[in-house]
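Example (one chain per record):
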Amino acid sequence: MDRIRFLDTLLTERTEWDRVLSQIDEARMTAPGVAGEWSAKDVVAHVTWFEREMVGVLATHALIGSDLWDLPQNERNRVLFEQNRQRPLGDVLVEARQVFDQLLAAMHSLSDEDLVDSGRFRDMPADWVPWQILAGNTYEHYRDHLPGLRAWLEES
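Predicted structure:
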Protein backbone atom coordinates (compact mmCIF):
# COMPACT_ATOMS: atom_id res chain seq x y z
CA MET A 1 0.00 0.00 0.00
CA ASP A 2 1.45 3.36 -0.96
CA ARG A 3 0.46 6.77 0.38
CA ILE A 4 -1.42 7.87 -2.75
CA ARG A 5 -3.54 4.71 -2.81
CA PHE A 6 -4.19 4.95 0.93
CA LEU A 7 -5.24 8.59 0.64
CA ASP A 8 -7.47 7.82 -2.35
CA THR A 9 -9.22 5.05 -0.42
CA LEU A 10 -9.53 7.22 2.67
CA LEU A 11 -11.06 10.11 0.71
CA THR A 12 -13.42 7.84 -1.22
CA GLU A 13 -14.65 6.16 1.95
CA ARG A 14 -14.93 9.47 3.78
CA THR A 15 -17.05 10.87 0.96
CA GLU A 16 -19.47 7.96 1.37
CA TRP A 17 -19.43 8.39 5.17
CA ASP A 18 -20.26 12.08 4.81
CA ARG A 19 -22.92 11.34 2.19
CA VAL A 20 -24.76 8.93 4.48
CA LEU A 21 -24.47 11.29 7.46
CA SER A 22 -25.82 14.16 5.36
CA GLN A 23 -29.08 12.23 4.99
CA ILE A 24 -29.72 12.51 8.72
CA ASP A 25 -31.34 15.76 9.78
CA GLU A 26 -30.15 17.51 12.91
CA ALA A 27 -33.08 16.38 15.06
CA ARG A 28 -32.52 12.74 14.19
CA MET A 29 -28.74 12.84 14.72
CA THR A 30 -29.28 12.49 18.46
CA ALA A 31 -32.02 9.83 18.35
CA PRO A 32 -30.88 6.48 19.76
CA GLY A 33 -31.13 3.26 17.83
CA VAL A 34 -28.34 3.38 15.27
CA ALA A 35 -26.31 0.84 17.23
CA GLY A 36 -28.24 -0.15 20.32
CA GLU A 37 -28.66 2.99 22.37
CA TRP A 38 -26.13 4.89 20.26
CA SER A 39 -27.32 7.73 18.06
CA ALA A 40 -25.68 8.82 14.82
CA LYS A 41 -23.99 11.56 16.87
CA ASP A 42 -22.57 8.89 19.18
CA VAL A 43 -21.24 6.90 16.23
CA VAL A 44 -19.56 10.02 14.82
CA ALA A 45 -17.97 10.81 18.21
CA HIS A 46 -16.79 7.20 18.47
CA VAL A 47 -15.18 7.16 15.02
CA THR A 48 -13.64 10.58 15.66
CA TRP A 49 -11.92 9.32 18.81
CA PHE A 50 -10.18 6.58 16.83
CA GLU A 51 -9.12 9.03 14.14
CA ARG A 52 -7.76 11.43 16.77
CA GLU A 53 -5.70 8.57 18.17
CA MET A 54 -4.25 7.94 14.71
CA VAL A 55 -3.37 11.64 14.36
CA GLY A 56 -1.30 11.25 17.52
CA VAL A 57 0.44 8.15 16.18
CA LEU A 58 1.26 9.90 12.91
CA ALA A 59 2.41 13.12 14.56
CA THR A 60 4.82 11.36 16.90
CA HIS A 61 5.76 8.35 14.76
CA ALA A 62 5.11 6.33 17.89
CA LEU A 63 2.49 3.86 19.02
CA ILE A 64 1.15 6.15 21.71
CA GLY A 65 -2.34 6.98 22.77
CA SER A 66 -5.04 6.96 25.35
CA ASP A 67 -5.10 4.56 28.28
CA LEU A 68 -8.47 3.45 26.90
CA TRP A 69 -6.55 1.20 24.48
CA ASP A 70 -5.75 -0.97 27.52
CA LEU A 71 -9.44 -1.79 27.96
CA PRO A 72 -11.29 -4.56 26.16
CA GLN A 73 -13.06 -3.22 23.06
CA ASN A 74 -16.59 -3.32 24.49
CA GLU A 75 -15.50 -1.54 27.68
CA ARG A 76 -13.56 1.07 25.70
CA ASN A 77 -16.60 1.70 23.50
CA ARG A 78 -18.84 2.03 26.57
CA VAL A 79 -16.48 4.59 28.13
CA LEU A 80 -16.33 6.57 24.88
CA PHE A 81 -20.13 6.55 24.66
CA GLU A 82 -20.45 7.81 28.24
CA GLN A 83 -17.85 10.52 27.67
CA ASN A 84 -19.65 11.83 24.60
CA ARG A 85 -23.36 11.21 25.12
CA GLN A 86 -24.06 14.66 26.62
CA ARG A 87 -21.88 16.61 24.21
CA PRO A 88 -23.75 18.96 21.89
CA LEU A 89 -24.17 17.74 18.33
CA GLY A 90 -22.50 20.83 16.89
CA ASP A 91 -19.38 20.24 18.97
CA VAL A 92 -19.16 16.60 17.85
CA LEU A 93 -19.55 17.50 14.18
CA VAL A 94 -17.01 20.33 14.32
CA GLU A 95 -14.52 18.08 16.07
CA ALA A 96 -15.09 15.32 13.50
CA ARG A 97 -14.23 17.70 10.66
CA GLN A 98 -11.20 19.16 12.47
CA VAL A 99 -9.78 15.76 13.36
CA PHE A 100 -10.26 14.47 9.82
CA ASP A 101 -8.45 17.54 8.47
CA GLN A 102 -5.60 16.87 10.92
CA LEU A 103 -5.54 13.24 9.83
CA LEU A 104 -5.25 14.23 6.17
CA ALA A 105 -2.44 16.67 6.93
CA ALA A 106 -0.57 14.01 8.90
CA MET A 107 -1.08 11.45 6.13
CA HIS A 108 0.42 13.84 3.58
CA SER A 109 3.60 13.98 5.64
CA LEU A 110 4.14 10.21 5.44
CA SER A 111 6.31 8.39 2.99
CA ASP A 112 5.35 5.13 1.31
CA GLU A 113 7.88 3.39 3.55
CA ASP A 114 6.15 4.75 6.66
CA LEU A 115 3.01 2.86 5.69
CA VAL A 116 4.70 -0.53 5.41
CA ASP A 117 7.56 -0.45 7.95
CA SER A 118 6.55 -0.76 11.61
CA GLY A 119 10.12 0.14 12.58
CA ARG A 120 9.36 3.74 11.61
CA PHE A 121 6.99 3.98 14.60
CA ARG A 122 8.42 3.71 18.10
CA ASP A 123 6.94 0.83 20.12
CA MET A 124 5.01 -0.64 17.20
CA PRO A 125 5.33 -4.44 17.15
CA ALA A 126 7.44 -5.67 14.25
CA ASP A 127 4.64 -7.83 12.87
CA TRP A 128 2.19 -4.90 12.60
CA VAL A 129 1.76 -3.10 9.30
CA PRO A 130 1.22 0.64 9.82
CA TRP A 131 -1.21 1.18 6.94
CA GLN A 132 -3.40 -1.64 8.26
CA ILE A 133 -3.52 -0.05 11.71
CA LEU A 134 -4.41 3.29 10.13
CA ALA A 135 -7.04 1.75 7.85
CA GLY A 136 -8.65 -0.13 10.73
CA ASN A 137 -9.06 3.08 12.67
CA THR A 138 -10.20 5.25 9.75
CA TYR A 139 -11.82 4.10 6.52
CA GLU A 140 -12.39 0.49 7.58
CA HIS A 141 -14.07 1.86 10.68
CA TYR A 142 -16.48 3.80 8.44
CA ARG A 143 -17.25 0.52 6.68
CA ASP A 144 -17.98 -1.10 10.04
CA HIS A 145 -20.60 1.51 10.96
CA LEU A 146 -22.14 2.38 7.59
CA PRO A 147 -24.42 -0.69 7.40
CA GLY A 148 -25.97 0.19 10.78
CA LEU A 149 -26.43 3.81 9.77
CA ARG A 150 -28.01 2.83 6.46
CA ALA A 151 -30.35 0.29 8.08
CA TRP A 152 -31.40 2.82 10.70
CA LEU A 153 -32.11 5.39 7.98
CA GLU A 154 -34.26 2.90 6.06
CA GLU A 155 -36.24 1.97 9.18
CA SER A 156 -37.04 5.50 10.22
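Caption: The first helix runs from residue 3 to 22.
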